[in-house]
Structures are given as C-alpha cells and as structure tokens.
Fold this sequence. Notes:
3 helices, elongated, single chain, two-stranded antiparallel ribbon
Amino acid sequence: MLDASRGARCVLSTTEMTTMALELRPNCECCDRDLPPASKLARICTYECTFCADCVDNVLFNVCPNCGGGFTQRPIRPVNEWRPGLSLAKRPASTKRVSLSYELANVAAHSLRIRNIPPEER
C-alpha cells in the first residue's frame, strides 16, 4: 500500500508483513541440488517453482516445466533483522524438498515447444 502523506513510500500493514515472504524452497526441483537461502544459483518462476541456474540454462532452457513462464534469480532474504520481524531468522526458509511433477521427456518436449517465445510473450 502506498501512503501519499509519506512521500509515496511503500507502507506495509502487519497483515501484509506476515503473509508476503517467499517460501525459499531448499532444492532444485530438477536435480535436487541444495539451494540454501543465500544461494546466488537459485532461480524461481512467478509461482516460486525453484531450480538451479544450471538446470534453468541447460535442461529447461528458461521454461518453467509447470507454468511455462521464465525464471529470475531468487532474492536473498537478509540474515540481519534490519526491520522488526523481517529476517531469515524470523521468516525461515522452507525445509520441504520439492521435485518435478513431470517426466524429463515431457519437460523437454514442453520446453522445446515454447523456448523460442520470450517469457513476456508466453
């Protein structure tokens, strides 16, 4: 929510602060590589499907096997609590490992069908 009286800064309500954090899944859903919260190799789609950079580039070709969207680097959650309640300690990463919902042959066919379409046009 923007508060015009505060110079158009973003102001979060208590409810928004408790529900907005990314899940930060612990692994690549394709190769099961560990992706700790501070990993610069973690990639996510708009639905938070999580893969490592190597799988995104060389197996998925920037096509999410679930939604068909593209990927971006997953943000790194601050370890330090710079604002009350907002830190890795206060909002820990998920420990639930996730794996592909589709066979690799199906994923490859899905990617081949749409990888040449830019993500913003899919």
